[in-house]
Amino acid sequence: MQRYSDLMRKERRSIAFVPTMGFLHEGHLSLMKKGLEIADIVVASIFVNPAQFGPSEDFGSYPRNIEGDLKLLKKEGVDIVFLPSEKDIYPDGFQTCVELKNLPNHLCGLSRPVFFKGIASVVSKLFNIVKPHYAVFGKKDYQQFLVIKQMVKDLNFDIEIVGAPIVREKDGLAMSSRNSYLNPEQRRHALSLYRSLKMAGEILQSGERNSSKIINEAAAIIKSYPDTEIDYIKICDQENLSDMEIIDRPALMALAVKVGKTRLIDNMILTAQMDSLMSEG
Ligand code: PAF
């Protein structure tokens, strides 16, 4: 992989990289499309990274479909698919990790303590292997997107991180490989995430600026669906993820909810109309 990238770079061809864990859906394909738009060559990787799963999480059962993925990537026009083995990434004696100090102490990092360390470490390795000019990340994993941007800045990776918007099903459910865990009934309950975010946006537009009030409304919507368990609902600063009590600037509303045994995440940027904010002084 490194030799191929060296060759492309020598030929002055730009490389966009899209790291994935496979079981690809339209959301992933939108990242590939973005890559094809901005660079000459698109490299996708598929690697289910054991280091980002906790001991009681779904590493063993994480959905996999390499054949199907390769077909989709070929159809999309992706140039190279990098499929490392676990031994390629973590050979015997491997001992180096990348860990961020602050960003992981929020949102998903609190209930998934090894998650961002696993992600930052594997993505650094993949960056050094693929040597891209650009790397594309979906904003459904908003915290991951921030973690990677911070890591690239802190460690001077010469890579431009490009964010891509959430892709949703027609009814609003954010696309995720983990949606495949849901039975039809749970699939309906999973809509509670998007509905609560949408409702939050509407409450904000109606003039409410108090985060706790909006969060309580969102929680009530989710709790009205059976078989749901809220991990967190937060309204926070979209750069450093610290809680915002009053929404006086665009804010990230992010949530994680278990539907049955499946943990789902979603988010939305809440933007109050500035003129109504100004008229409130
Ligand atoms: O977003 C994902 O699929 C993974 O976290 C990533 C970035 C491929 C790292 O394993």
CATH top level class name of the largest domain: Alpha Beta
* Quaternary status: single chain
User: Separation of termini?
Assistant: 57 Å
Global outline: globular
What is the CATH T-level topology of the largest domain?
Rossmann fold
Structure commentary:
The chain is of the alpha/beta class and 281 residues long. It has two domains: 163 residues, Rossmann fold (3-Layer(aba) Sandwich); 99 residues, Pantoate-beta-alanine ligase, C-terminal domain (Pantoate--beta-alanine Ligase, Chain: A,domain 2). The chain is 40% helix and 19% strand. A hairpin with a 2-residue loop joins β7 and β8. α6 crosses α7 and α9 runs antiparallel to α10. The longest helix is centred in the middle third of the chain and has 16 residues. The C terminus is likely disordered. It binds pantoate.
